[in-house]
Amino acid sequence: MKKTHVSLFLLAMACGALHAQQGGITPEMMREISSSYQATPADKALRNAIGGNDLKKLALNQENRQAMDTHFSVKVNSKGITNQRSSGRCWLFTGLNVMRAKAIAKYNLPSCEFSQVYSFFYDQLEKANLFLQGVIETADRPMSDRQVEWLFKNPLSDGGTFTGVADVVGKYGIVPKEVMPETFSSENTSRISSLIALKLKEQALQLRDMVKQGKSKSVVAKEKTAMLGTVYRMLTLSLGVPPTEFDYTVRDDKGAPVAVEHHTPKSFFEKYGDPQLLSSYVMLMNDPSREYYKVYEIDFDRHSYDGHNWKYINLPIEDIKEMAIASLKDNTMMYFSCDVGKCLDSERGLLDLNNYDYASLMGTSFNMDKKQRIETFASGSSHAMTLMAVDLDAQGQPKKWMVENSWGASSGYKGHLIMTDEWFNEYMFRLVVETKYVPERISKLLKQKAILLPAWDPMFAPEE
Fold it and tell me: Which residue segment(s) compose the domain that 175 sits in?
């Protein structure tokens, strides 16, 4: 190498090193950073406390520990708290709970619970097919393509949305819980879900190779069907065999048997479920990061290939509250989802912005608003529950809300969670209401052509 070239090379290296230093932590920066910490006696005490304790306990706001008000001026009665155990099926429990509340009221039943594992079985099979078909249709793209990458990152999930409930029960019907009870794997879904997901990824690579080799669509489709047979067997071994017909004992409000009915899952759904589960409901969202009074649809945010994507009207929180109150006043529960982990006092079952004071503990502030939290993936819809009560003040404005949860009767407040209206504003995301509670000015928005958002949109995250 010539001397001139060597000099230029060394100069370039030096400039590169200087540029790297400008973005990295230099010794001078480290001195400035470390000197900003003053080892005061108060900080030493805090360090000792934080080092040996749960941050949540230390940040507990004692000024907000007064007796919790559990009175609600508007409340829909329910019978029996469900328990999803260690699974992400909150969306399914919530959707089925909305239906069972109607069945209990309509037939004056002492209690009622639909089999969650029956619906979950077909949900997992449908999601497996959705993934494999998506892989077939994108087989001509490289693995680095964002859609392909997203598919392989999301082959299967035990989470979901209300439209998933509607599509699955509409296609396969429902059965009573006693006809297909829970199994260990349905209550602890992580192991079987990870095994099926692993198998699906292996199968997906095989399907991509078949398409690249020029195999006919019929040959590829036949192979996909055989692959789904493997998934079906894995589901059967872990969740049980879905019944095709059964007898159901009808009981009066005292629990005494009055009749025995013979059903298929579809006929049971026609009588005790809600055949209009999708057509008579409207999905609402409060997402301030998007324009309000617009309809949005998230691509691939569905549970089955021939099902429906999650499509919703994005509205200000005040409009959503208006419809929620109208529904509750008419004794009708709703599918509701939120970011349940934020500010939750699980011992009392209270969701309140003032439950914890991390700012004082850490000597800083946390000031992002709802829009900013969504845009930075700091908050999103994480859990579905059944909205069942609201407490109104003298002017008819909400003070607090209550949901029926699916974490068992011993969790929270007798199996429920109570949230302040201020918390509702910040962390409520989705609500599904019957069309009869939707004002015309809102329902007419559905005539819009939905704005299609990509599968990796922040609002895709399924409730768990």
Answer: 74-460
> Using one digit for the tens of pLDDT, what is the confidence trace for 445-464?
999 999 999 999 877 677 88
Question: How confident is residue 39, by pLDDT bands cut at 50, 70 and 90?
Answer: confident
Check 90, 112, 338, 343 and give the catalytic one: 90
d(CA 390, CA 74): 5
Identify whether 43 is part of a domain.
no
Contact yes or no for 201/130 (Cβ under 8 A): no
d(CA 464, CA 461): 9
- Indicate whether 322 belongs to any domain: yes
Q: How many domains does the chain have?
A: 1
User: Does residue 59 fall inside a structural domain?
Assistant: no
Whole-model pTM: value is: 0.92
**Is 112 a known active-site residue?**
no
Whether 405 sits among the annotated catalytic residues: the reply is yes
148: domain CATH number? 3.90.70.10
Tell me the CB-side half-sphere exposure of residue 52, using CA atoms within 13 A. Answer: 5
Catalytic residue among 19, 405, 416, 425, which? 405
To the query of whether residue 90 is one of the catalytic residues in this protein, the response is yes
